[in-house]
């Protein structure tokens, strides 16, 4: 019961009262929808194609990321601004509450429930709920943009959209695999990064933690490597999409292991945290 009250407190203070931060999800999804809609319109004029894509096309475009950087004198690298912005805004949304809560209410809360573990577990569950809410808002905005652009409300990608703005291999994937790559993997990656940010904030300033995550995401946008966690949830870097990309199973194993380790390490650090210094 006390754990439930802690969670309700986190939802009220860290999600509902800070709901303005989560509107960035809608903003980025709408920008992505506008960009893809304009590109499809331009393509139709040149190729004389019918239709305006599908809902899945818009979602894939938002979540897919970009191919890794390759030096070329003929073509400039297209920085995945939308993909980076989507995740950085999420890190901003979940950055402030845990440490702010610890500094203002943490001592009272931990003393009242007599369990540091309950406080940390509540923050981990709150973080997951924030992630789900953020992605749900993005999905809603994507649906609105698809409807506004006259796209077909279908979970099947369109061949000419994938061929021009993604990878043709996407057309060979089943719907469950598409959802795994474009929903489950990005969501788990966002949750992992949010937990990592909380763990770092137990020892570092929250701004420093955010800057570290920003650096990791920026580096992941340039290079494809298992050592850069931003690749673990980027569909464009997966072998099923990119051919020679990262193995999907390995990426999920790394994500789940990272989440588990963050929860354990955070619990270990918080058990040894002098919360009186935070009051």
Structure description:
The chain has eleven helices and no strands. The longest helix has 33 residues, at 116-148. Helices cover 70% and strands 0% of the residues. Helix 5 runs antiparallel to helix 6 (116-148) and helix 6 packs across helix 8 (175-201). It has one domain. The chain has 279 residues and is an all-alpha fold. The chain has helices spanning 2-16, 19-47, 55-63, 81-93, 97-113, 116-148, 159-165, 175-201, 206-222, 239-242, 248-271. The model has no long low-confidence stretch (mean pLDDT 88).
Quick structural overview:
By secondary structure, the chain is an all-alpha fold. It is built from eleven helices and no strands.
- Taken in chain order, the helices and strands follow as HHHHHHHHHHH
User: How many DSSP helices?
Assistant: 11
Give the N-to-C terminal Cα separation. Answer: 25 Å
Choose one word for the global shape: elongated
Question: Topology of this structure?
Answer:
Elements: H1 2-16, H2 19-47, H3 55-63, H4 81-93, H5 97-113, H6 116-148, H7 159-165, H8 175-201, H9 206-222, H10 239-242, H11 248-271
Helix pairs in contact: 1-5, 1-6, 2-4, 2-6, 3-6, 4-9, 5-6, 6-8, 6-11, 8-9, 8-11
